[in-house]
Amino acid sequence: MQVKVNLIKVNIQSEKFEVWIREMFARRQKKEVCYHTIDHTTLMVEKVREMGEFYQFSEEDQEDLFYTAWLHDVGYWDGSAAGHEARGAEVAQTSLEKFGLPQSRIDRIKKAILATQMPQSPADLFESIVCDADLYHLGTEAFYQQTLLLKCENEKAAGKPTSLKEWLVESRAFTLKHRYHTSFAQQFLEPVKKVNLKYLDLKIEQLESENRGKTKKKNNKGKKDKSKPDRGVETLFRVTSTNHMELSAMADTKANIMISVNSIIISIVVTILIRKLEEFPNYTIPAILLISTCLIAMVFAILATRPKVTKGVVTKEDIANRKGNLLYFGNFYQMTLEDYTDGMKEMLKDADYLYGSMTRDIYYLGKVLSKKYLMLRKSYNVFMFGFIISVLAFLVASLFFEPHQY
To answer: Which residue ranges does the record assign to the HD domain (predicted)?
Structure first.
């Protein structure tokens, strides 16, 4: 009963604090602040709660994360970005005292706020969660939009504009240097952050290409040499190919997981349960269902990773007609070195042939990926539904059928 009363008090106290902090944001948030707004803060409140639940934090720890997230950027109310963490810790001290928090918890919250200062230096899991939630957007689809808001804020603070290319270069350098601290962020945010880095590369290359085009126009050089590939186009092919290869590697990893898990289950069932069926015949049908599920799931997983063998030869006629694709090993592994070298020279002489081959390569990579993921989906569906049915069958056999009644 005492625990219930304490929880009610904690919830009321948190609600009062949230009402107060929202009023403070409305009154004291500067208009020139574009990024470190209440929107960023409420997102961080949501994410620290999500990560706290992931790590099964206690009610008190969750509440401390709640206070830390709300207070981590209030230093912007009374000054610029420089030193805002220390100012935020001061606000935390005075405000949380009024809300009756003990000094030990206030010190913990202040330390977590100071840990968000760049470069981040979390000392424990609590501070790591706060630091990762503060830069959560680096690993989300909203990354580019958020970095433009931060650009707007920096421009207003500096009183002068910054070129988009210069800002994106700085953002790329920051994101490359950044490291997530929690296993949660490393698992769920780091992969998206890598994709965002590739997108930044593409945008920077695009801006460089546009600048070169403007320079050529100013110098009255309107003619474009088609034999020389544009850097933006090269980046597009490079990023797209890399994404396809990473997706293929992810598919193979998922397939290997399915193969390994189902192999283990089948081994256990065969070695332990099959020998007991004479004593417990009521488990025969559930055992057959489970083994069948694992076998079918394994078959689909194996089909997803099974390589396809091609003829391995591109003829001179194919190259002359600009049809042969020499960029995939399966098309040339049986060719002689001389024929392959001649074919590559012909391809490098003609930008259209080169780009056409790269386009076909990406297209067929996509076709292979679609088959892989289709087989993987079937494998996971069979495993999920079959495993549920098998478990239910075991429960029914245990509860409603005695061995001698089966």
So the answer is: 37-137
Cα separation, 274 vs 365, whole angstroms: 43
Q: Which runs of consecutive H residues, i.e. helices, occur in 29-163? A: 38-54, 59-71, 84-98, 103-115, 125-134, 143-158
pTM above 0.70, yes or no: no
- Residue 312: pLDDT over 60: no
**Is 121 found in the same domain as 7?**
yes
When divided into structural domains, the chain yields a total of 3
Dump the DSSP string for 3-33.
Answer: HHHHHHHHHHHHHHHHHHHHHHHHHH--TT-
Question: Which of 134, 158, 178 finishes a domain?
Answer: 134
Where in the sequence is the domain holding 194, given as residue range(s)?
143-224
pLDDT tens sequence across 292-305: 898 998 898 888 88
Following DSSP, what letter does each residue of 341-373 receive, concatenated?
HHHHHHHHH-HHHHHHHHHHHHHHHHHHHHHHH
pLDDT interval class at 49 (50, 70, 90): very high
Separation in Å, CA 310 to CA 196, 251, 284, 314, 329: 35, 21, 44, 11, 9
Q: Are residues 157 and 188 in the same domain?
A: yes
Cα separation, 150 vs 39, in Å, equals: 13
